[in-house]
Amino acid sequence: MRFDRLRLNGFKSFVDPTDLVIHEGLTGVVGPNGCGKSNLLEALRWVMGENRPSAMRGDGMEDVIFAGTTRRSARAHAEVTLTLDNKDRLAPAGMNDSDALDVTRRITRDAGSAYRINGKEVRARDVQMLFADASTGAHSPALVRQGQISELINAKPKARRRILEEAAGISGLYQRRHEAELK
Ligand code: ATP
Ligand code: MG
């Protein structure tokens, strides 16, 4: 599954609408300390359904909303849209009628997150499963946070196993089994 585009609006330091085209091949993000490189990676994780504020370096999920500066007031929402190439029609049934998938997550203060795929409201789970199956999910080892290598080395065996399961592409199956057992 290819990522074509990442759009941010009000997410962390990206207060103004920002549109990034992701070209094929290797992409590097460079810039001085504090310019927002890690925030970009966090936006990617967040739109894929990350639900741990700690993974966003915050205390609560609303900390991803632009908090304001001396010159600009805080925002009430943050929104991130990730555009996926769907020419191969790899998306789950019912989402396969177009060449591109726009996955959007929006958070509003005191109202939590809402998700859309191509403009249609979906559940957080639908988005998480879309990416879990593509082995690129919010917890995917394809995304390595700053400081994560040392965390990995010090991880307990159970945590390390979870990482391996995601890499093997079976974490989506576990989630479905868990839900089937609850029914
Ligand atoms: P480094 O090179 O040090 O790793 P970086 O480019 O990864 O830096 P980030 O950590 O992505 O930088 O960005 C940090 C900046 O984002 C800080 O200036 C911080 O104030 C700002 N920031 C984080 N959350 C918010 C928020 N909710 N509202 C406004 N600004 C925010
Ligand atoms: Mg950083």
Automatic annotation (TrEMBL):
Annotated source species:
Paracoccus litorisediminis
- Family, per entry: Belongs to the SMC family.
Q: What is known of its domains?
A: Contains large globular domains required for ATP hydrolysis at each terminus and a third globular domain forming a flexible hinge near the middle of the molecule. These domains are separated by coiled-coil structures.
- What fragment of the whole protein does this chain represent? 1 to 183 of 1148
Instruction: Give residues annotated as binding ATP.
Output: 32-39
Q: Which lineage do the record's taxonomy fields give for this organism?
A: Bacteria, Pseudomonadati, Pseudomonadota, Alphaproteobacteria, Rhodobacterales
Q: What is this protein called?
A: Chromosome partition protein Smc
Compartments where located = Cytoplasm
Assembly mode: Homodimer.
Its biological purpose is as follows: Required for chromosome condensation and partitioning.
